[in-house]
Design goal:
The protein is built from 5 helices and 5 strands. It is α/β, with parallel strands linked by helices. A hairpin with a 2-residue loop joins strand 1 (about 5-10) and strand 2. It starts with a strand and ends with a helix.
């Protein structure tokens, strides 16, 4: 499995993924997947996936000590924007990314909104 080395005193951290089937499959093929008997570091979101499942996965991944980065498709992030707006931890870092079918909109990305706010207050 792919991990981020050296993030916390040399401990490897996992990259978690929440996204559509193509996105998650691509990351799994790249070696990001990690599964134990009771948990994994990815969630495939389909049109019939309940919002509560996505919310639970976000809350779980962002509270785990073994996750360093959470990658989430922006169209999925839009569905749980209420959780993203209140998320303030640095690690795991949450990064929004486009999907094959949904273009990326930097105006909706909460990290880009924070960067813009910081740059506007500095001027």
């Amino acid at each position: 499995h792919l991990s981020i080395e050296g993030m916390a005193a040399g401990d490897g951290k996992l990259v978690a993924v929440i996204g559509d089937e193509d996105t998650v499959t691509g990351f799994l093929l790249a070696g990001v997947g990690h599964r134990t008997a009771d948990k994994s570091n990815f969630l495939v979101v389909k049109s019939d996936t309940p919002l509560s499942v996505v919310e639970h996965a976000f809350t779980d991944f962002t509270s785990r000590d073994d996750v360093g980065i959470l990658l989430i498709n922006q169209h999925v992030a839009n569905d749980i924007r209420h959780l993203l707006k209140t998320y303030s931890k640095t690690i795991p870092t949450v990064l929004e990314m486009p999907s094959k079918d949904q273009p990326y909109d930097p105006q909706q990305d909460y990290i880009m909104q924070r960067v813009s706010a910081m740059l506007n207050t500095e001027s």
